[in-house]
Amino acid sequence: MRRADLEASFTEYVTARRHALVRTAYLLCGDEHAAEDLVQVALIKAVGHWRRIGDHPEPWLRKVMVNDHISGWRKHRGRERLSADVPESAVPSRDRDRDLSLAAALALLAPRQRAVIVLRYYEDLTETETARVLGISAGTVKSQHRDALQRLRGVVPGLGAEATPVG
Questions:
Q1: How many other CB atoms are found less than 10 A from the CB of residue 44?
Q2: Gyration radius (Cα) of the chain, Å
Q3: What are the pLDDT digits (tens) for 49-88?
Q4: Are 80 and 57 within one domain?
Q5: What is the value of pTM for the model shown?
Q6: Contact 123, 24 (CB under 8 A)
Q7: 82 and 18 in one domain?
Q8: Number of folded domains in the chain?
Q9: Domain containing 17: what range?
């Protein structure tokens, strides 16, 4: 593929998927500006690999964002600042108060647990796909998922089994 074609493909992808990537990043880190930075860094890294990942870049970009967020969290433990502002949802919410409670509850989870919940519920990935993105076993995804849901159910009243993803 020619360089001009690669650049066009990258530009087209970023134009079409940037909002979804920022939303995922926001759910991972809980801060609008940090989410923008996370996406920007992931896209910068993607440029060098576009020839290889350009046909299906989403899993690669998710993995980069999750890994970068977890690495950053480890470096700056305790310094994380959360924003009360939730970005515009791609799907209209039926219960805005509950969504705000869930967003606040996500902030209470450990980064890996938060990543599992975001990838399973917001990105609708299977356990196997989530494990591949995070570079962990499906069993670890299951245990992180179980522990995260237990914690969320303790913090968000009324969070029940109706939210369990399939797969």
A1: 10
A2: 16
A3: 999 998 899 999 999 999 898 887 666 555 545 555 555 5
A4: yes
A5: 0.58
A6: yes
A7: yes
A8: 2
A9: 1-90
